[in-house]
Amino acid sequence: MEREKGTYTPFAKFEGPMCFGGLCSLCNENQLTVSKMSDKQLNQSIKTADLGLMKKKKPKDLMGGAAMAFTDQADLFSLQFEEDMTAKQKGLLMAAVFASDYMLYEKDGGLCQPNDKGGCTTTCWNCYCCGMVCPCQVQANPKREN
Fold first, then answer.
1. How confident is the model over 2-56, as pLDDT tens digits?
2. DSSP per-residue letters across the chain
């Protein structure tokens, strides 16, 4: 959204896949299109990528994959946008990359996390549905003998 004189107008829409992140992000790049939009297109799929393209890149090597699996510090993004955009519009898109990273990729708690049962919880992928990000996770707990 852009704000001018107290009113907000839609500027761009980020659209991506329904399933993303988790272990899938170790092997695949996630791509989100950045398209121009108007008030009437708020609830419509556009996916023209006429303003740009955002990608969450997969790791290049085993060390990058391990860093991505066990820390939140290894996410790599690229943003391509049209050159004829204003500096304010480019800044909005760059801010949207940070917001997307937080909202879509950081909320799953990492790919592999210890759980309260002494095991490990692994996020296979995240599913975006109805405005919510729902992680698909697998828990591995050690067998306890009584």
1. 777 888 888 888 888 888 888 888 888 888 898 988 888 878 888 888 888 999 8
2. -EEETTEEE--EEEE--SEESGGGGGTS-EEEEEEE--GGGTTS-----SSEEEEEEPPSSHHHHHHHHH-SS--EEEEEE-TTS-HHHHHHHHHHHHHHIIIIIITT--SEEE-TTSSEEEEEEEEEETTEEEEEEEEE------
